[in-house]
Specification:
Elements (H helix, E strand, L loop, with lengths): L5 H4 L4 E7 L5 H14 L3 E7 L3 H4 L6 E6 L8 H10 L4 E5 L6 H6 L1 E4 L4 H54 L12 E8 L7 E7 L4 E9 L3 H14 L3 E4 L2 E4 L2 H15 L7 E9 L4 E7 L4 E4 L5 E4 L17 E4 L5 E5 L2 H5 L16 H7 L7 H18 L10 E8 L1
Parallel strand pairs: 1-2, 1-3, 3-4, 4-5
Antiparallel strand pairs: 6-17, 7-8, 8-11, 9-10, 11-12, 12-15, 13-14, 13-16, 16-17
Length: 413
Amino acid sequence: MLEQDESTSGHPPARVLFVISDTPTPLTHALHGELSHVLGAHALLQTVSNAHAASQCDANIAAVVMCFSRHDLSTGLAELLDRAQALHIPILILTDTFAPSPALTSTCNTLSIHEPAPVIAGMLRGLLSRQIEIDTLREAALGAATQTDRLLVAVTRMQDELHLAGQVQREFLPKKLPSFSGGSVAALWRPMNYVSGDIYDVRRLDEHHVGLFIADAVGHGVPAALLTMVIARGLPSKEIKGNHYRIIQPSEALACVNRELLARQGNTTRFATAIYGIIDLRTRVMRMSVAGHPAAIVMRANQSMEIFPGHGGLIGVFDGVEWSEQEIQLHAGDRVILYSDGFEFAFVDPPHIKGFTRTTPTRAVQEFAALLSITEPADMIAHMERRLDEELLAHHNADGPADDLTMIAFKVV
């Protein structure tokens, strides 16, 4: 096999630096000739002194053979070793030292300079053949590193775009909640990630009416966030004719949003749940429509809690759908809570065990019930914020909530 020439191997001869001391001996001259003969066309030995070897060591060198004895000067050897190792070039050290230093044997291949030339040639051939695989792996690693760099750039760009999308979405939220002579309000909005599939609005419709709205687009991420912006823009509040206006009631408003979604869907189907209530601050009556959304909760001033579910379908699915309305009589001190279904994921129910029945309130409802003793909306929101943080900490969930979270608390003053 050692006698195979270039014509049969298909590869040009490998360039090998044959490093000798500044005062070469007959042994090194003889070894050079014998190795050249045994290796034939597989390797081209380039003789160089150890003082100048580092400058000759470049990426075109396939291997380095260092011949020295314990009496040779070490000038240039350290620089050569550093250079070869930096270029990942295999090193074969031929020495007459009986026991090479551990530093050499751990990073280089060593043989006695007195070994027969075929043995040394075989060792060198093994290093050269292994180097082909190493070079292939190195090229693959460099390619992978390049792809990783490109992915990092793409991910960074996507993160920047998501941050910008989150800022744009926040423009559709109330910058400051309105104030009312007959009520007070506070809100919680926690996106699952950069953007949210939830959106809310608190509108002062006129002197005596306030609108409370939450929508939850099915899904997460940018598609859901874009849908919420369509919903927010499509929610009407008043119809103006000349010097007169009419407040659009909740069922009619949801129907308008439904038509807007259907008109913009194209070939895709995007839908959402929603709840919209309009409170007359004079009569303290709330008219409410629900589109597949969690029920409204009313905390009575007498420390009781009532749940008002709705039975309307989702918005964005069928055209011509009508939503019903229900009237809820409120009293001074009552608080209205609207929320998205993210709270059901934030406060997970325990598994069904002995003694657990369907009549047992869910953990989310229990968390809302804990707000009964809190009278002010801002304090209710602050309490819920703390409970959400405690729940995340208890479950070691550093990634944030499992779903988007939105809550509106309104108090009749």
